[in-house]
Amino acid sequence: MAEDGLTKFSFEFWLHKTLKWGQSTTPESQQDVCLHLPELQEFLLQIYGALKHMNCTTAVQQFPLLGQLLGRLCWNPLVIAYDECQKILMWCLCCLYSGEPQNPVELKANSWIQSSLCHLLSISGLGSHDTGINSFISALGFTSADYHSKLLENVVLSLVTEISRNRSNRFKNQKSISSQITSMSLFCVPLITLPDVTPLVEALLSYHDDGSQEVLSSAFLEAVNEAMLQKQISLSEPAVLQLWLRHLPSLEKAVLQTFENLISIQPCSMQEMAYLIKDSLLDRAICHPAVFRTIDEILKNALLETDGAPEVMSVMQVFTQCFVQAYHNNNKQHKFPLKAYFPHNPHMLVMALLKHPKEMSAEGLRQHLNHIAEILKTTVEATGTRSCSNLFENWFLFIHFGEWVDIAAEQLVLSQYESTDALLWLLVFYYEPNYENQQRSQTMIEARSVCDHLTTLSRTASISATELQTAVSSRTGIRQPGIKHVVRHLIISFLLFTPGGQVIAREFIDGFAVGSSEISEVIDLLAHLSNRVSQAGMKYQRTITLVNDLLQKLKSDLKFLQ
Are 115 and 206 in the same domain? Predict the structure, then answer.
């Protein structure tokens, strides 16, 4: 915000000047206007720099003379004829426009802004302006505000019609048409937040010619994206998709803003995260492979930079759930092949992970987990120059579908089978993909020891939280650092899905998550499990109640620690 400049060239000084200038009809006032125009334009730019960071109410509170000053400048012919003063005034007015007025001040300001903008438009060649215009408007039976509003509506309609005509006319000079479209997009920049201009914005976004160069101004594309992210305008889904497909920086900025919002609200439920994604429109756009892979690349980099942070994994899994839902709902004739979304992964693995667990019986579920483990092991344990790349790409794919890890952990603590190697392998690979075969085998041995003990405890008539805590501590002694994440997952699954575990869950959790980082990880894990069991319905009703109670308690503990 350019507050220093706003102090130097005070509002009182410039308002006094505008009062003195009037309509600049005398030679003396005209001379004084011309003398101060460069200085005035610089001051207007500083106002614009400040207004970009405010809403209308805040701006009026901070700069009480702002409305009077802008209003007088908009009607001074010498001011709006100088260089870019007219455009900067439009920018300032659009910053003040409230997309969703919250009070009478903003409602009144909106009406005044629309009238002022329409007046500036009528001066810029979109309508005629002379000393008799007011009497002409009166003769038509309009007020000045109604006339200018109707003028803007007609201008927008004619421009939309012109774009449609140009799109269908292949005989006109395409270079000339492209130049017109570019100029039109630049003209729209200061007007983007006006609701009456939305049809023109959407028509421009839907326009394509046969050339390889982008015909829409980058300033226009950036302004549209900024207004959309700040909820100043509402565009149709096809228009938003066109914006993101033709301007990658806009898509990246939308994804990063949504990602930051998702990280900032954690810990939270996955349903809340899904709501934020849907509010951003990314859940609908994600069905286009270019959008999906851009989002995926940003999440991949975030996962690498944070060394596999649980909250980043959660964001990735919610995005994936949104994608799967949208992909299945999409009309068959508009579907892209799965290879377009996952070009570096075996098709068989993608298909296996995409299957919905609710479609399988208990035995079918176990067989399917074995199948997923078999494909992953074959891929990531392969030798050769591509093995490191294969390992990361397929681990990254597996992270997308973390629900299968939760199911594997549940199966392990409930298992009546002796052979649990495949399920243990999945759990260890999820948390420690970089282990060599020997390291992974050692971690699996330790994890199997924990599983065996949990199975034994589940068969006893009653267990205490202290007994379970002692058993866990003695088995995490901790030759392999990754074992603590695996054990935590197994313990939480034991507490939620076995009758004995549910009895001691609340007492055990109090002692298990002692630090804020551990509490955050447990909350994240519980949120995943809550999301999965909520979808399963009545079968897990008791578990749903328990996990919600635990989440509420841990979130309260986390606030206290912070």
Answer: no
